Amino acid sequence: MERTGVITFKGNGLTLLGNPVKVGDKAPEFAALDKGLGLVKLSDFAGKTTVISVTPSLDTPVCDTQLRRFNAAAAALGDQVAMVNVSMDLPFAIGRFCTTAGIDRAVTLSDHRDASFGQAYGVLIKELRLLARAVFVVDKHGVVRHAEIVPEVTSEPDYDKALAAAK
User: Does the predicted model carry a pTM greater than 0.90?
Assistant: First the structure.
């Protein structure tokens, strides 16, 4: 499925691929690689509320800020909330970024191989093969309780709304 008119990059329209996910939907399963090349699925977090932060590339200032904010927030949310970040960055680049930035609470995943997450959540950018900036909160029963696709890729998400949905 292709959708236009949902996001822009510096004011220029882009096309999103995949099925859009809405609040109340059963969260789609996905598989992505962790920084050690291990396969991680949404079902690995079953029984926990899961905040899924989606960033185009960790090597940009807004993505850097987004992951750091959610990583810091993870401590206050406790063990019953999983904090996950998904990007198209290679696992090795993610590992380097996390070491340098001190990311120690968020699980960072790479969707570069199959774009499984991007397609399942409708956030794969056709023109760039990157993921649109977004945040999804999935409750412990696997239901989407918050879904935000940020309209302008260079803007930050609404952290407060996402974290409120996670509590």
Answer: yes
